[in-house]
Design a protein that fits this description.
Elements (H helix, E strand, L loop, with lengths): L4 H5 L14 E4 L6 E5 L2 E4 L5 H27 L3 H18 L1 H14 L5 H23 L6 H4 L3 E3 L1 H12 L4 E5 L5 H11 L4 E4 L5 H11 L5 E4 L4 H9 L3 E5 L9 E6 L2 E6 L1 H9 L2 E6 L2 E2 L4 E6 L11 H22 L44
Parallel strand pairs: 4-13, 5-8, 5-11, 6-7, 6-8
Antiparallel strand pairs: 1-2, 2-3, 9-10, 11-13, 12-13
Helix pairs in contact: 2-5, 3-5, 4-5, 10-11, 11-12
C-alpha cells in the first residue's frame, strides 16, 4: 500500500530550538538506566518505566491495526463501484490535506516535466492521489474477488499476452519488472487468478498485524511474498526453477544497495537487485504495469517487449548497464501514464557526492541539468 497507517498516526516529538538545552541524555555503556550529563557532572536519573513504554508501543500498534482493518473492511463491505468511488474520494481528501506529499510531488514533476506549467503538474498530481485511492478501493475487494469478477474490469491486450507467452516459451525464470504505477497490487493478484501464482519481493510493513492482514489479501490465489531483506537465496532458486518473480524497481535506494542511472534525465539511485538476479539466472525480464484505462473502464495489463540482457564480460558494468535499461523501461511506462505514478515518493533523494539535495536545498533552475553520463551498450 502506498499510504501507511504508521505514517498517518505516528508522531515524532521534536525538541524546541527556541533556547539551548543544557543537558543531554544517553544510556551509558552497559547501563540499564539513563544518565544526565550537565556541565561535566554525571547524575543518575530515575529509571524509565520500560513496561509503560512497551504498553504504549503495543497500544499504538493496536490502534494502527484497528484503523486499517476498519478502513479496509468498511470499503470491502461496499459494492465494488461504491468502494472505488469512496477510495477515490479518500485520495482527493489526502491531496487536500497532505501538504508535505504535495510539495514532494510538485518538486518531482518540476524535475521530470520542466516544460509543463504549475497547473498541468498539479493536474497530474491530483491524478496520482485519485489512482492511489482507486487502488485502495480495489484492494478492499480482494477477499471476495473471483477470476470471473476480475475479468469485468481487468483486461489483457493480445500483444501483451503474446509477450508473456514468448517469455514462457523460453523455458526460463521470468522477472516481472514493475513499478508503483496504476494498480500494482492488482497486477500480481489478477495474474494469479487468471494464469498461475507468482512470487513477489516486498518489504514487510513495520506493524506485523497489518502485515498479516495485507498478506492474506495479496496471497489469496497462491502468490508468495519474499522478504527483500533475505531474498537472494529464495529468489535465485525460484528463477533457476523457472518461476516468476515480481520486483518493484522504481523507488529510491541507498548507495550501498544501488547504482546511479538516469531517470527523467537525472541520476537516480536504483536497486541493482533485478539486474543481479537476471544476470545470475539468465531470467527473462518483462516490463509490466496495470494502468487504468478510462475509455475502457478497465485496468489493462501492459507487458513487454522482453528486455534482452547486456553482457560485456565486466560484472559491475553489466549490472549498471542493465539497471539503466530496466529504469528506462519504467520511465517509458511513467511517461505513458504520468497521472498514475507515485510522484509523492522522493525518487531523487539519494544524490551523487557533491550534488545538492533536491528536496531540502533551494536549487536554482539554472543549476538543474539532466545527467549527461553515458552508459554504453544501453538499449533505451
Amino acid at each position: 500500500m502506498a499510504f501507511s497507517v504508521e505514517g498517518l498516526l505516528g508522531r515524532t516529538h521534536q525538541p524546541s530550538t527556541s533556547r539551548p538545552v543544557p543537558y543531554s541524555m544517553r544510556l551509558a555503556s552497559g547501563a540499564k538506566t539513563p544518565v544526565c550529563h550537565y556541565s561535566g557532572t554525571r547524575v543518575k536519573l530515575p529509571p524509565f518505566h520500560e513496561s509503560r513504554m512497551k504498553k504504549n508501543s503495543s497500544l499504538q500498534s493496536t490502534v494502527e491495526y484497528a484503523a486499517t482493518r476498519l478502513l479496509v473492511s468498511g470499503l470491502g463491505a461496499m459494492p465494488r463501484p461504491l468502494a472505488v468511488a469512496v477510495g477515490r474520494g479518500i485520495g482527493r481528501i489526502a491531496y487536500a490535506l497532505a501538504g508535505g506529499l504535495r510539495r514532494t510531488g510538485m518538486r518531482n514533476l518540476q524535475l521530470a516535466f520542466p516544460e509543463m506549467s504549475e497547473r498541468q503538474r498539479a493536474h497530474l498530481l491530483r491524478g496520482t492521489f485519485r489512482s492511489l485511492g482507486r487502488q485502495l478501493g480495489e484492494f478492499s475487494q480482494f477477499p471476495y474477488a473471483t477470476a470471473e469478477t476480475l475479468r469485468e474490469f481487468v483486461a489483457y491486450g493480445d500483444r501483451d499476452v503474446e509477450h508473456f507467452h514468448q517469455a514462457k516459451a523460453r523455458g526460463k525464470g521470468i522477472i516481472f519488472l514493475t513499478s508503483h504505477l496504476g494498480a500494482w497490487e492488482l497486477l500480481s493478484f489478477a495474474h494469479s487468478a487468471f494464469y498461475e501464482p507468482i512470487s513477489f519481493m516486498m518489504r514487510p510493513i513495520d506493524n506485523p498485524r497489518i502485515e498479516d492482514l495485507v498478506e492474506r489479501y495479496r496471497t489469496r490465489f497462491g502468490n508468495t511474498p519474499i522478504d527483500k531483506k533475505a531474498a537472494a537465496r529464495s529468489a535465485l532458486r525460484l528463477l533457476r526453477d523457472g518461476g516468476t518473480l515480481g520486483i518493484l524497481v522504481d523507488l529510491n535506494t541507498q548507495t550501498r544497495e544501488g547504482v546511479f542511472v538516469p531517470f527523467f534525465g537525472y541520476p537516480a539511485c536504483t536497486t541493482t537487485g533485478a539486474a543481479v538476479l537476471a544476470l545470475r539466472t539468465d531470467a527473462i525480464v518483462l516490463p509490466v504495469c496495470a494502468p487504468w484505462d478510462e475509455a475502457r473502464k478497465r485496468f489493462v495489463f501492459r507487458g513487454g517487449p522482453i528486455l534482452e540482457l547486456v553482457r560485456t564480460g565486466n560484472q559491475e558494468r553489466d549490472i549498471e548497464i542493465n539497471t539503466a535499461n530496466f529504469t528506462a523501461a519504467i520511465e517509458r511506462h511513467v511517461r505513458a501514464f504520468p497521472d498514475q505514478w507515485l510522484w509523492i515518493h522522493k525518487r531523487w533523494k539519494t544524490r551523487p557526492q557533491g550534488e545538492p539535495d533536491f528536496y531540502r536545498a533551494r536549487v536554482a533552475e539554472t543549476n538543474l541539468r539532466p545527467s549527461k553520463r553515458d552508459v554504453s551498450n544501453r538499449a533505451f
